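Work package 3, deliverable 3.1, input record:
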Amino acid sequence: MATKQAPVIVWFRRDLRIDDNAALSAAAQTGRPILPLYILEPASVGTGPLGAAQRWWLRHSLAALAGRLADLGAPLTLRSGPADVVLDTLIAETGADTIQWNRRHDPPGMTIDRAIKAALKARGLTATSFAGQLLHDPTRLLTGEKKPFRVYTPFWKALERSGEPHEPIEPPAGLIALPEAVASERLDDWHLTPEKPDWATPFREIWTPGEAAARAHLETFVDGAIDGYGADRDRPALDATSMLSPYLALGEISPARIWHATRGLDAPTGDLVHFRKELAWREFCYHLHFHFPALPEKNWNDKFDAFPWQEREEAFMLWTRGLTGYPIVDAGMRQLWRHGWMHNRVRMITASFLIKHLMIDWRRGEKWFRDTLVDADAASNAANWQWVAGSGADASPFFRIFNPILQGEKFDPDGTYVRRFVPELETLDAAWIHKPFAAPEAALKAAGIDLGETYPKPIVDHGRARERALAAYKSLKTG
Ligand code: FAD
């Protein structure tokens, strides 16, 4: 009978929740003691180091998870080091014979997990993995020819046809702790948050990491903004999207929970479907990453390998700081700095500006976003950067070059979004808010703007940059 009481280790990764957590619920059902575990793996393994903004999020998310697990009766143990070594140590310390986790889907993480599972099984231990991070397993949906999808619309249709995702699992009512406490590292000793300076302070203006806040965001969204989502989701000044991405990125909420919360809503059908289609974009990105593991590093379309990217350090630095002289680009980059997040429409505009106006390799932008986004996600980030660059699957064609002035005028017509993040332009007349460089001297003076001093002049001319980008693209086609 002794083995019956051997503890079960539940290894948390990007699933920092107790709700709809298949590994945790299955462990609870065994009726055995449970050791919830989070391992801070070395930065060099898996998809690489967590970005600085996401480390901040992780710190607070782990604290929230620890609180919920303590309430359920089994405290969270924190350990750092290579996962196989940590697991071996804990198995030796506690006599655990079963290790459970929810699958991760990034190819490097999957390689680690496969090796660990095989090694544990070879020792006669039970290692079980569960689904739940996606609506559907990325291996499941394939074309009629049993090939991965390369185009989003047929992927979406296949997803729709494949039936409803699993019913979310309610959290366990309680957990049994190990009879003796297990030593845990201290969260504060991991130094996940910035200290000097603490640039993350403004994150708190809009974010509360953790599962409870994720559910609150979901409720607010389905009770309100989902009505009108289709029309308003491109307007960065409005609170028109769910803002669930950082919670999804570290698994504080499951996509199935979100999907089911939108069931039976009386939101206009178009809005509902539109929202679900965005969730399906996330799935599509994972599908692409799974079938093309090099997505964050290599052009999906290798024709782009010959693209004449430019090394423009100064321009790159100005882009990162939101000092390009194009207000919508600068507002987006400053929103990213301030809140670790940027509105989707503006992500497209800023990415396009880096790639096409500055001709800087999309991989530099992808890395910058990975470091600064609280929702950084290997699949979604890489797939979207490649989408903007034109090098990705089902991508926007390279020759479609966003005009940052027209994009600003269309999606932020009165400049509310720009004024929020670029205070130098706060009182500029709406007629010039997206092109202060074209404003009459009197309008600038009335708004207290000294172009080139208080706000930069454009670092590139839109028309010339466009021609240069198109010529580079043409050389690719003919070269
Ligand atoms: P909502 O509009 O409420 O959408 C709901 C959910 O659908 C999102 O939370 C997200 O999980 C998913 N979703 C929506 N749009 C997309 C999309 N285009 N691609 C994939 N999933 C989507 N998203 C990330 O989660 N992590 C990233 O690292 C990331 N990097 C991006 C980089 C670029 C250059 C671009 C153009 C987009 C990127 N996105 C990324 C996608 C998108 O911008 C964000 O998911 C979205 O802005 C999150 O806001 P929301 O939760 O309010 O979205």
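The chain is about 45% helix and 5% strand.
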